[in-house]
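Entry:
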Amino acid sequence: MELDDTICYCFHISQRKILNFIRVHHPRRASQLSECGGAGTGCGWCVSYLKRYFNDSQAPLVDQMHVLNPEDYARQRAAYIQAGHGKPAQGAIPLPDSLPDSLPDNQPDSSESR
């Protein structure tokens, strides 16, 4: 994903904004990323990704192992929402028209707490 790609579809928060928030504010817990425009407080889809960005920021070297293109990310979120795991906030970016036949292995575990 590119820096200007959306991570939080409910509140239109980009990867760049999240990474800059982490760099400037040095949150001590992943839950503090909700202070970045409300990220993670809508449908809950992006919470596992916010946790990854936070955990990566705590590591001495940030790696790029979480490479995902924006279209796949949006489709995975749509499947998450349609499976009943969350409800998009009012004004959220709409779900894409097509869904994957099966979800890839990097789809977040729905049992993770929000």
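Helices lie at 15-25, 47-58, 70-82.
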